[in-house]
Amino acid sequence: MDQMDCRILHILKDNGRETASDISKKVHLSVSAVLDRIKKMEESGLIKGYTVVVDSKAMGNDVTALMEISLEHPRYHDSFTEVIMGHPNILDCYYLTGDYDFVLKISCASSDELERIHRTIKSVPGVSATRTHFVLKEIKNTYSAIPGEAAEA
Q: GO molecular function terms here (predicted)?
């Protein structure tokens, strides 16, 4: 990946529906060269896919929470992650070092729904402890970092 690929990625990050024609004008390459570079990044797995970013509140999900999870033993890892992968309200799951094994990002309609999700997670075999944090306000939510993006001061 070179600097030109980074420039193309930055444009696609801002708008995944940007046309190759518009990208070519911005980076001063031919449309076919832009398409070739995008195709290579897709085939290499650098670009994993394209998606829609949905406003959770507009969808009726007014509660966002971060839940830390501890497992009794590593043997529960696979069965726990299988349950998490199948739950529609769990947006992100990270395996961690430190006092807790996982942190989950949960989006749901209400504190009552969060309580039901919490009970579901607590009932998964091997879960020994949880700690839940309500998100008061989302300050920053960036889906990927691209090399060469300058930090704004």
A: sequence-specific DNA binding
